[in-house]
């Protein structure tokens, strides 16, 4: 029996987390009375599409090869982490174009940080697992 390598497993875990992120907007248990996910932010079809596309990229990379998984982890990790950093300071991100559409949001620091934690955490996970992997292994 062949074991799945760490990079492919990490890509699959990120894919599952991203599918969960896309699904939260459609599960009433995660929405408050104003339709905010976890009481913090609104998701829309564009953000759901971004999460779904990222999940598909993660799963495809895991299926293709270890090297594709490492590439995904590194690129995804950096993109999502930097999006989270931007969210902490502005309340908007660049991946969903909200910084260009909504600009800097006037919301509390708590909401900016709490809303950015998922991208910071997923991005950090991608960075740590992607850049700690050695490319030369099969």
TrEMBL record:
**Membrane spanning segments where?**
48-64, 71-95, 115-133
Q: Which UniProt keywords apply?
A: Membrane, Transmembrane, Transmembrane helix
The identity of this protein, by name, is DUF4383 domain-containing protein
The organism named in the record is: Bradyrhizobium jicamae
């Amino acid at each position: 029996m062949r074991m799945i390598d760490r990079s492919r497993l990490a890509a699959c875990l990120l894919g599952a987390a991203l599918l969960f992120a896309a699904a939260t907007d459609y599960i009433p248990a995660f929405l408050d009375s104003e339709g905010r996910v976890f009481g913090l932010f609104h998701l829309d079809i564009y953000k759901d599409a971004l999460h779904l596309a990222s999940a598909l990229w993660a799963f495809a990379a895991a299926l293709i090869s270890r090297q594709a998984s490492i590439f995904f982890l590194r690129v995804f990790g950096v993109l999502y982490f930097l999006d989270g950093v931007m969210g902490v300071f502005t309340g908007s991100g660049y991946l969903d174009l909200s910084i260009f559409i909504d600009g800097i949001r006037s919301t509390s620091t708590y909401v900016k940080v709490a809303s950015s934690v998922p991208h910071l955490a997923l991005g950090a996970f991608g960075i740590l697992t992607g850049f700690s992997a050695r490319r030369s292994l099969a």
